[in-house]
Design a protein that fits this description.
- The complex is a heterodimer of chains A (about 150) and B (about 375).
- Chain A is mainly beta.
- Chain A has one domain.
- In chain A, about 10% of the residues lie in helices and about 40% in strands.
- Chain A has 1 helix and 10 strands; from the N terminus they run αββββββββββ.
- The longest helix of chain A is centred in the N-terminal third of the chain and has 12 residues.
- The N and C termini of chain A lie far apart (about 60 Å).
- Helix content of chain B is about 35%, strand content about 20%.
- Chain B has about 375 residues and is an alpha/beta fold.
- In chain B, helix 2 links the parallel strand 2 and strand 3.
- In chain B, strands 3-2-4-7-1-8-11-10-9 form a 9-stranded mixed sheet.
- Chain B has a domain of about 130 residues: Thiolase/Chalcone synthase (Peroxisomal Thiolase, Chain A, domain 1, 3-Layer(aba) Sandwich).
- Chain B is built from 15 helices and 11 strands.
- Classes of the chains: A mainly beta (about 150), B alpha/beta (about 375).
- The interface between A and B is large, with 45 and 41 residues.
- Bound molecules: zinc ion.
- The site of zinc ion has 8 residues of chain A, from loops.
Chain lengths: ~150, ~375
Amino acid sequence: MESDGLQNVDMVRIPAVPVFNWSVGNFMERFFDGLKGGKFMGVKCPDCGRVYLPPRMICERCFAKNDEWVELPPEGTVESFTLAQVKVGEDGELADLEAPVLIGMVKHEGADTCLVARIEGPDPEEASVGMRVTAVLDKSAESILDILSHYVPR
Amino acid sequence: MEKQVAIVGYAQTGYESDVDASREILVLEAAVGALRSAGISREVIDTVVTANNDYMDGRTISNMRLVEPSGAWLKDESKVEMDGAYAVLYAMMRILSGDHDVAMVIGVSQASVFPTYVPGVMTLDPTFDRERGLLNEVSAAALQARAYMDACGVTEEQIAGISVKNLRNAALNPLALRRMPVLTVDDVMSSRMLYSPIRELNAFPPSDGACSVILASSKKAAEITDCPVWIRGVGFSHDSYLTERPLDKLGSLKQAAERAYAAAGISDAKDKIDVAEVHENFAHEELMAYEALGFCGEGKGSALLESGATKINGELPVNPSGGALAANVACAAGLARIAEAALQVRGEAGSHQVKGVKTALAHGQTGLCAQENIVFILGGE
Ligand SMILES: [Zn+2]
């Protein structure tokens, strides 16, 4: 390529920021209402009995509408984890974190799917798949999305 | 599949981290290159299928201004908003429908123009995961890597062995972005840690570029070339969202491969496949792919790597081009695997040519932790 690149226009800024005002849907509403009250609410497939947490409206395996609500305990097992040294920064690139963050994928007892949240407490060297953890809720969190604060080992 | 649809031409641009060209010029270069490789003119093309992404291109209906550089003006043109490997499937079906004889497929994107890791974040569940700032394509892949390592007893050094093999191979491929002829496991292990166990050198390099492949019906293929590369089989499969499936294996890749092998009449993949181009966004995914593709038993991916079988001079070379670790253009990386596999069947791969390739496998993936997978089996006469 022989051009010298764009000399006159540095960056075009789209005059609108795409913000999407989705409804989270009735199922996630109930999930968040549960968290506010300190409960983990999942749903069960009427056909195969698979339990979805967070709740999903449809069991893709059975092509069935999930309809039975079940309350699950705050305890679960780490299915996988990663120690983050970076995060996706404001510019969409990987930016170094000031301190590493341990992220876990946790399957609550009685659930068949996972939630992803921070794990606090263990030395990252001691984190392991199969580690048993308990959820810590922060009911005073500013955003409803942050009520599930993190997990701690038990 | 009997000889119904063949690859008759292909081209890739050189891959760069920040190319000094517009996406239109990249597409033009790939389109003109593929036409030249097939020895045909634009007039022979009936239908054009592009693979590109509105988000990455920063415009809606982002294929619109690709009509000119792809040669699609006043032709039957369409788009796939996934990897170009799926555009090949679409183009193949358009030919099999009988309505078209010759199709051009082009995949393009430029990581240098979009915020590299935002498209991955945008694919997360918007009612929870996306808003919590923990998951993205690299952290998700790290969870996948850890789950696989734990299930199969794989070490970080063994995963680094994939990066060493592929990036050394890339040194033989003049188009590759990361060409590292003397790379060692220690070099990989001391590269920047992103999300453990994933380091910079076992993650894909954000890349700019384009790839084009021309397909033809059997009748037209015979007119165009003496060495068509036949699509002998294809299979694809789409798994669940990443928190709702086991991450320690690639179930949908296994299923896609089984469908492709059945279509191609292959019962022993390790014996019948002469070379494979695998779309490994992260090094550990190639080990997982060995198992899903049936090149070895479950949990035996690292043993297969360490046996040397998948080296460029081994029994079953994988990613002689360097794979996606060497250059990973979103929407074109799986398509490039198909172009590379075709190159190997034709014996046109130059320094990274594998000897005596009759049957080649090409794999493409889309989605976090390889949620969707597609497998092509290609063969010569
Ligand atoms: Zn079900």
